[in-house]
Prior knowledge:
- By secondary structure, the first copy, chain A, is α+β, with helices and mostly antiparallel strands.
- Chain A is built from 15 helices and 18 strands.
Amino acid sequence: xxxxxxxxxxxxxxxxxxxxxxxxxxxxxxxxxxxxxxxxxxxxxxxxxxxxxxxxxxxxxxxxxxxxxxxxxxxxxxxxxxxxxxxxxxxxxxxxxxxxxxxxxxxxxxxxxxxxxxxxxxxxxxxxxxxxxxxxxxxxxxxxxxxxxxxxxxxxxxxxxxxxxxxxxxxxxxxxxxxxxxxxxxxxxxxxxxxxxxxxxxxxxxxxxxxxxxxxxxxxxxxxxxxxxxxxxxxxxxxxxxxxxxxxxxxxxxxxxxxxxxxxxxxxxxxxxxxxxxxxxxxxxxxxxxxxxxxxxxxxxxxxxxxxxxxxxxxxxxxxxxxxxxxxxxxxxxxxxxxxxxxxxxxxxxxxxxxxxxxxxxxxxxxxxxxxxxxxxxxxxxxxxxxxxxxxxxxxxxxxxxxxxxxxxxxxxxxxxxxxxxxxxxxxxxxxxxxxxxxxxxxxxxxxxxxxxxxxxxxxx
Amino acid sequence: xxxxxxxxxxxxxxxxxxxxxxxxxxxxxxxxxxxxxxxxxxxxxxxxxxxxxxxxxxxxxxxxxxxxxxxxxxxxxxxxxxxxxxxxxxxxxxxxxxxxxxxxxxxxxxxxxxxxxxxxxxxxxxxxxxxxxxxxxxxxxxxxxxxxxxxxxxxxxxxxxxxxxxxxxxxxxxxxxxxxxxxxxxxxxxxxxxxxxxxxxxxxxxxxxxxxxxxxxxxxxxxxxxxxxxxxxxxxxxxxxxxxxxxxxxxxxxxxxxxxxxxxxxxxxxxxxxxxxxxxxxxxxxxxxxxxxxxxxxxxxxxxxxxxxxxxxxxxxxxxxxxxxxxxxxxxxxxxxxxxxxxxxxxxxxxxxxxxxxxxxxxxxxxxxxxxxxxxxxxxxxxxxxxxxxxxxxxxxxxxxxxxxxxxxxxxxxxxxxxxxxxxxxxxxxxxxxxxxxxxxxxxxxxxxxxxxxxxxxxxx
Lengths: 461, 461
């Protein structure tokens, strides 16, 4: 980019936004070349802008079209596929100042929020009314609603409650042309036009910059029961998972941790986990008391039948302790080595035992430490490779192992990504799953929204 | 179309398909100029084809691209927005021979079906396993899965269980280019590429011809309670609806019938409905026995507080009788006059009382008989105009009334269509809801899938 052009463009942007809404100094820009993803080539942006209104977002996108300068929308930057990392000289659009909960509508059980609202803040706001917004990615206390819609965040409750896409009823967005559009609304049913709210969810900032979101809320469950089951065989754990669902019990959460993860968490937290176990399962059922009783009975039976050693949380404090272990999984694994490669290749839940076996083989083949934990109930495992990206020889083995993990997931009828997104971390593998015709369709679709390829270029397809 | 060209094109098509899979005689084609929609200009197709494999569908779409002849995908033709009616000389693709249930997967709680499977046949097939496929449009015993995915069918259980889009995990389709693509799959979580399964649901046959569908199944509820409540004021009924939800009870069904509908059903069926009532509500809660008890108590309290006279179905036979009245609504109304215009303008549920008021005003203003019934719990009302399309003067009033119904729904924060689709019945109103930029986006999106505008042209946008 020629220097004069850049100076002129940024001066114009400065003029559009007024003071205090743009940063251009290298030391201010540095962090915006990163997000939570490991091992990516990063690129510092030209500037970061902080719009404070929808109108400013519109002006920014029009400006970008005029100068053909790419925009990179960003929330809290917690995503794990490089979704917010610039790929060329452009401007990061940081949406955290658009952070109002605009409405909680108790008649329609909806909330309307701006993109910068933190997911957990929405849940705190609706709690007094006995309501919840179920999607709960691990980053629920830091991630924004806008980012979580753009990435279609998953989390621990996907099995019973679904993921972000199941709760988004309406989206207002500035598409790549600079046009402000509203998709969907507060009606439960809506078949007017294509399902554009659904298309925006998981679009990774490539179709539009989200400026408003209408979400569905649901009544909070009134009762809960939580179990920890210890297994000496990974097959037993896998069979227990499949059998619970086969008994038509859909737990709220059904999580697994393998031996590597258990040992690392125990070293890190020292909370008395069974370090010789091959796997532990954490299972929680929620709903009405009687239903929870019935489901809990079946869950316990299945776990014990599959040789699980079962303990039940007797109160909220004990339940908290169980989840503390689960929540510690990623931070604990991340402490072991300089670089943590957290994957989310996902399989149909019946293939979880087969996938666990493949992960073990891959870890042995490439002589790598892979800790696996995750949402076993929905087939969304998180194999986590503990490595050091500055060790070139090992990093090459990591890259090969990652490729093999994806191939295994696809062979088992799964998908490249269950909840982390494609971004720039997985777009080179997209052909394997979608084929050339599929990838070309994604590209044409992108251009229908964003003909000048302004929004988050180089991501997804 | 020049005669020679037509003869050549059809001869080629005949050759591709072999014998017994194509009809070209006018008396065979006549019915394919219609579907269940009233008051449309119809157009007889050049031919109807009956593919018996996915490969044949691919060949048909390639043939259509070669000759630039439009295709009109069709299931049972039960849709109410002209979605299956030809708009120009083209070929109807009747998918009812692709009618196999390919798999019921009890481990993953999914079923894989071909598009010609009747919705109810799927439900009968999964019933022995204690599972259900919840979407239940009124046409459940005749409509096909393919048609119901293409139109995103709604139905009586939308409030609690959602609609078709909430159950479609994967779709295989031949897009307008003739390419066979697979979107989604059996994993609960999938963020690979844009959410193309969601985009296919409700795309009204304009993006692709669906050849395979993977649906989510859920455990059948084990208990039910059903109530009939009689109201002397439409406001009381409306307030009761809002208050049930506000009490965080989400009934499985929450249906309304107004006085016109009640009287017509009673005349038709003679089952003892209260003909002097202003409205009746039918409410059913389902789930685990204890939950059903708790919810039933709240429902009864709210209904009585709002001056509803409540009776409860004591057994399945009595429940059947309640639903018989509801199911008779449309057939009864349809018997009264030569033409029945069934609308589905939809509002946020809190606006149901306001919408009912507006419907009454519109019926008086245009001196028309409008019976209203429908899914009050999800704001999806069915104002039904009883008329005669051969009476030109009255038909003009009907058209004005319909426009005003749409305007009212939009003013109340609603949408043009909750579950019937846009098709060719409502596309001239699309601008009101989506604006010019929105409609242009729909058109660009369509072209990304179907650059030659082969698939169901003239529908939706």
